[in-house]
Amino acid sequence: MENFLSPEFWLAVGQIIMIDILLGGDNAVVIALACRKLPDAQRTRGILWGTAGAIVLRVVLIFFAITLLQLPYLKLVGGALLLWIGTKLLIPESEDEHSSIQASDKLWAAVKTVIVADFVMSLDNVIAIAGAAQGAGGAHQMPLVIFGLLVSIPIIVWGSQLVIKLMDRFPMVITLGAMLLGWIAGTMMVGDPALSAWVPSTPAAQPGAAATVLPALHYGCGIAGALLVLALGKWFAARQNPSTTPAG
């Protein structure tokens, strides 16, 4: 029980909520597009069934992601992907990004479209939540994951417009969220088992437990990842639209 009161647990909870707010809006757009041709009486059912199927699928994906992240080099790969995902958040999106989502006037066809599209788009969410959950320690990773997905349900189903308005009004939310993904990437990569021989760590607290990276190095890599995402995002955005580059 004391683990649920630890700062690490609630830090991971906060990170998962932020990830869902940032990365759940896209899924809300997909659901809206896939269900837009359904009759009014079936639209709510399509949204709920599609979301339920997508959430179950994501639980399975994150379970495998947490397991796979224990293998050497996969935290490095996952961290690199998170760095790119965070950077992409800071690059202006094209207007036709969701143009390939097909709507259907049949309930189960729309549900299938939602689940398939969510599967394709969920890589960022899966890796980010798995990385955040690892920060809370082994025994509570799956409860954290389930909590994060429960939080994502109202965000995905009802919160898309609110999220979009919030991000439009306060662009700093996107910047801070992108830097959070960079932070998770940095702390994830430095904990990769393949680097254990070179990374200074503290002895295991209990026999059989894994050693932990020195706190100063852990937080330093997190800060480095956050700053790297910010720098890359601004650089790519400036290259994509040079006229928006601020003077001086």
From TrEMBL:
Its main location: membrane. It is found in: Membrane. InterPro entries: Integral_membrane_TerC, Integral_membrane_YjbE. The chain crosses the membrane at residues 12-35, 47-67, 139-158, 170-190, 210-232. It comes from the Bacteria. Keywords: Membrane, Transmembrane, Transmembrane helix. GO terms for cellular component: membrane. It is a multi-pass membrane protein. Belongs to the TerC family. This is YjbE family integral membrane protein.
